[in-house]
């Protein structure tokens, strides 16, 4: 018997230049944007700013993924805006509980 020719198209092999950053997420830019937003926000004090930046340095030292770093900075920025007139270093458990209550009332599905 004669072999049948395949009707499948041959797909050319695609090679990527691994020297280029192919990230579609661009976490470096997002992280830099959070740095800038934290520095420029009027309700975030210099003390809180330094504390957040120190925390980011610790995340880098621990080798956390840039996606994780970005998410932590995003959350810290949002929470820092919510605790205006408070410093992170001075925040109490009661104030954190109050923040959780505010967040739950605003975003949780209340059935």
Please describe the structure with a list of short key phrases separated by commas or semicolons:
111 residues, globular, 57% helix, single chain, mainly alpha, 4 helices
Structural account:
- The chain has 111 residues and is mostly helical.
- It has one domain.
- The protein contains 4 helices and no strands.
- α1 runs parallel beside α3.
- It starts with 26 loop residues before the first helix and ends with a helix.
- The mean pLDDT is 81.
Assembly status: single chain
Query: How far is the first residue's CA from the last residue's CA?
Result: 70 Å
Based on CA atoms alone, the radius of gyration comes out at 23 Å
Strand content: under 5%
Give the count of helical stretches. 4
Shape: globular
Structural class by SSE content: mainly alpha
Q: How is the biggest beta sheet arranged?
A: none
Helix content: 55-70%
Which blocks of ≥5 consecutive residues have pLDDT under 50?
Answer: none
Count of distinct strands: 0
Domain count: 1
Mean pLDDT: 81
One letter per element, helices H and strands E, the order comes to HHHH
Q: Could you give the topology of this structure?
A:
Layout: H1 27-40, H2 46-62, H3 66-82, H4 93-107
Helix pairs in contact: 1-3, 2-3
Short description:
This protein has 111 residues and is mostly helical. It is built from 4 helices and no strands. The protein has helices at 27-40, 46-62, 66-82, 93-107.
